[in-house]
Amino acid sequence: MKGRNNIISRQKDNLTYVAVTAAFVILMILQNGGILKRAHTALLVPVCAYIAAALALNLCVGILGELSLGHAGFMSIGAFTGIVVSESLINAVPNTALRLLIAVVIGAVFASFFGFLIGIPVLRLKGDYLAIVTLAFGEIIKDLITCLIVGVDKNGLHIVFNASGAKTAADLHLAEGGKAIIQGAQGAVGTTTISSFTAGFILILVVLFVVQHFVKSCTGRAVMAIRDNRIAAESCGLNVTTYKMIAFVISAGLAGAAGVLYGLNYSSIVATKFNFNTSILILVYVVLGGLGNIQGTIIAATILYVLPELLRAFSDYRMLVYAIVLILVMIITNNKKVILFLTGLGKKKD
Questions:
Q1: Residue-wise DSSP of 67-104
Q2: In this predicted model, what pLDDT tens digit does every residue of 151-176 receive, in sequence order?
Q3: Do 258 and 27 contact (CB within 8 A), yes or no?
Q4: What are the DSSP calls for 196-226, one per residue?
Q5: Which of 55, 165, 194, 328 has the most CB atoms at less than 10 Å from its CB?
Q6: Which residues are CB-neighbours of 117 under 8 A, at least 6 positions away?
Q7: What are the CB-based long-range contacts (under 8 Å, 24+) for 213-222?
């Protein structure tokens, strides 16, 4: 029985890879054929970033069982770290694909590091307390980045912390040919955009691989055991804090990688983009897709991100329609009678 379940689970994972690849191929054909409008193609990279971020949050909320409201903060760390790395390596690494790869890796590492730092005090908390602290972390990171002024020249990076708000990019004292990368509240301006839909597709596959293999690993099983019954897990000798830290750090790193992809898709971006509302938006994708449901998270993130654009025909009422759709989906997905009805229809077709 156990072997059969493993086979079914493996087939489900493989089917997910196939479905994501098929969607990528179809969209690339439509894009190259000029069928997709420019407004639609502009959504391809951001939706990939949000899918990756939602999968990362699902690892924390669905698999680990801890509510985090600070994943937008990890995305912002990845985004601005990636932008600084990319802009600093323009001359040293002219190949955009390689430069993007380096930026994603370094952005993920930085986000993981901050995930470790915040995880030390946070993961000893439970329930609402953990959610509140991670929410505060996201807001603090946003404010800190807003105070940063960063530039690069032949002498290397120059960083000024503009806590007073009186300093400008001129205070970096850049040499001739230098460039201001982050300009405080103005954010990153004049960034060379190197993100692509192909890179987004690869990132989704990598995040899928990490999450699915983590769930099936001994560490992942230990994490789920802690989620289901912490006391029983401790009685079996599991170090609860250590396993929770591993899952949280991986989740933060994947969110940081998603942030790099998102940040390098725009020529200008501000820290306020990654605020509390962004964290809630990603959480909505996870909840509607199903806690711990990898495939559901991908579908929910895709539909809910694209939906506002598709509802532009409703003009000023499109966000109202969007909210109504969210409410209906929540009611339907949590109604046992509706689920049984849909299941019955599926059995009749079989």
A1: --S-HHHHHHHHHHHHHHHHHHTTTT---HHHHHHHHH
A2: 998 888 888 888 877 888 888 888 88
A3: no
A4: -HHHHHHHHHHHHHHHHHHHHSHHHHHHHHH
A5: 55
A6: none
A7: 214/59, 214/63, 214/247, 214/250, 215/63, 216/9, 219/243, 219/246, 219/247, 220/63, 220/247
- 245's tokens: 């830290």
List, for residues 170-226, the tens digit of each pLDDT value.
888 888 888 889 988 888 988 999 999 999 999 999 999 999 999 888 998 999 988
Q: Is 33 helix (H, G, I), strand (E, B) or coil?
A: coil
**Alpha carbons 127 and 227: distance in angstroms, whole number:** 12
Long-range own/partner contacts, residues 238-245 (CB < 8 A, 24 or more apart)? 241/123, 241/124, 243/219, 244/64, 244/66, 244/119, 244/123, 245/116, 245/119, 245/120, 245/123
Helix, strand, coil distribution of the chain in percent, nearest 5: 75, 5, 20
